[in-house]
């Protein structure tokens, strides 16, 4: 029976962000990419709602001790879930995770209908702006044209700022891999080092010339590092 792997996207991310990971690991892992219900209407704190949705997903799919990999907001959700359910996660992988500090001006104030601004902010996510393809920019632009979705983005960004995880991290003994780009301008390298210092079983690997989404920008290196960690 294959080991389960859950991939969690960020605030403006999507399923396509994990293409390289899926291609590399799908023959050996039972891969799940739940779409985080960022745009749902509810009365809970937004991060708590996302964690509850992950709890339900794992229960519905009867996943036992999956590997959980989260980017940006998805990493934040993964941290909170792992802290609540340490017995339900075999290994934790964080890349560009929020929870300590996040410089996300687009999350705080997404300018609706301004295509060039959106292109600039998407490019800012990467070390190499060429990664911000027209298709990727269009995907984010569609979100920002929707008034309700914009409101949900702002609410989730504020919830992420409120849910400061530093006090929780020393209590998470799950083996954890941190893969960080040295040119991450959203969650800078200092954030990765703070995660590494607070998590009891953390390994930090820094990728040069890489931004906020290493699995997209440096997929081969990301997969190699992940492979080594999973094999331990």
From TrEMBL:
Superkingdom of this protein's organism: Bacteria
Pfam families assigned to the protein according to its UniProt record, in alphabetical order: Abhydrolase_6
UniProt KW keywords: Hydrolase
Extent of the signal sequence: none
A GO-annotated cellular component: membrane
SUPFAM superfamilies listed in its UniProt record: alpha/beta-Hydrolases
Protein's UniProt keywords contain Transcription: no
Record bears the keyword Nucleotide-binding: no
Domain AB hydrolase-1: 6-224
Molecular function terms, GO-annotated: hydrolase activity
Protein name from the UniProt record: Alpha/beta hydrolase
């Amino acid at each position: 029976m294959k080991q389960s792997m859950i991939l969690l996207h960020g605030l403006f991310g999507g399923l396509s962000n994990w293409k390289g990971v899926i291609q590399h690991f799908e023959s050996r892992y039972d891969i799940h990419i739940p779409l985080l219900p960022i745009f749902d209407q509810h009365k809970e704190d937004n991060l708590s709602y996302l964690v509850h949705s992950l709890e339900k997903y794992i229960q519905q799919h009867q996943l036992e001790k999956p590997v959980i990999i989260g980017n940006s907001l998805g990493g934040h959700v993964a941290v909170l879930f792992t802290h609540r359910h340490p017995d339900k996660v075999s290994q934790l992988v964080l890349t560009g995770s929020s929870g300590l500090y996040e410089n996300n001006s687009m999350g705080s104030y997404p300018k609706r209908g301004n295509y060039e601004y959106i292109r600039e902010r998407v490019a800012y996510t990467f070390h190499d702006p060429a990664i911000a393809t027209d298709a990727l920019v269009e995907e984010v632009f569609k979100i920002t044209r929707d008034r309700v979705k914009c409101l949900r983005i702002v609410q989730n960004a504020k919830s992420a700022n409120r849910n400061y995880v530093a006090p929780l991290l020393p209590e998470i003994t799950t083996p954890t891999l941190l893969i960080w780009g040295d040119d991450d301008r959203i969650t800078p390298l200092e954030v990765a080092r703070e995660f590494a210092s607070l998590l009891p079983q953390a390994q930090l690997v820094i990728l040069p010339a890489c931004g906020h989404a290493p699995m997209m920008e440096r997929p081969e290196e990301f997969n190699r590092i992940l492979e080594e960690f999973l094999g331990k």
